[in-house]
Amino acid sequence: RKLVYAWEMGDVNILISSELNAESRIQYRRTIQDRVETIAPFLSLDGDPYIVADGGGLVWVQDAYTTSDQMPYSDPVANGFATGSSGSDHYNYIRNSVKIVVDAYDGGIEFYLWDD
């Protein structure tokens, strides 16, 4: 298994390390944005997640936006701060409607709808 992971990750240290054993786990999507985009590719993510102390643990909070370029009677806006869910940075509707919390220790993810 170590050989396969070393080949896939392109890192010989996986193969030669004595720290890896049968109970070791490899996390494929390590960054917050990679993890969230895999689960919810339809959301536009803010480029600056922030860390929060939560009950003795640490969590990352990622703001997520719903966007559309199909809102009637609205002019499209080019804005570089969040890429639209269509992959475009031109949209005529944006709403900060989702807060995503990623546990800094185990990588667990929770989504919270934020509706004013």
Short overview:
This protein is 18% helix and 34% strand. The model has no long low-confidence stretch (mean pLDDT 83). It is built from 3 helices and 7 strands.
What would you note in describing this structure?
- This protein has 2 domains: 1-28, no CATH class; 31-113, no CATH class.
- A hairpin with a 2-residue loop joins strand 2 (50-54) and strand 3 (57-68).
- The strands form 2 sheets. Strands 1, 2, 3, 6 and 7 form a 5-stranded antiparallel sheet that branches.
- Helix content is 18%, strand content 34%.
- The longest helix has 8 residues, at 2-9.
- With 116 residues, the chain is an alpha+beta fold.
Keywords, please?
single chain; five-stranded antiparallel sheet; about 120 residues; two-stranded antiparallel ribbon
